[in-house]
Design brief:
The protein has 98 residues and is of the alpha+beta class. It is built from two helices and five strands. The protein has a five-stranded mixed beta sheet. The chain starts with a strand and ends in a 10-residue tail after the last strand.
Length: 98
């Protein structure tokens, strides 16, 4: 299967930055953030190769790929994959809005 182009939404970009900054601040080190960012990149690369790997959501448009405690929520289109958000699964799911 051919890889699809990945497009990060502004929300997803901001979510990733906030998550990584949170861990840098709380751990007083960049090591965990680097590892987590690498896991995000690997997951997105995998999604680009196998777009149906993620679990379908209730609305049937978006899919979810789990990376540790985080949910990468994305939509599959004909030629691209749009990363919508990265959500911490330990947070209140009511805070998750599309």
């Amino acid at each position: 299967m051919a890889k699809r182009e990945i497009i990060w939404s502004l929300k997803a970009k901001n979510d990733r930055i906030k998550i990584l900054e949170f861990w840098i601040e709380n751990n007083k080190s960049v090591l965990y953030s680097r590892k987590l960012n690498s896991l995000f990149k690997d997951a997105v690369k995998f999604i680009s190769e196998y777009p149906t790997v993620g679990k379908l959501t209730e609305d049937k448009k978006a899919r979810i790929k789990i990376v540790r405690d985080y949910l990468i929520i994305y939509e599959v289109h004909k030629t691209v994959i749009v990363i919508l958000t990265i959500f911490d699964s330990r947070r209140n799911p009511d805070n998750l809005k599309k």
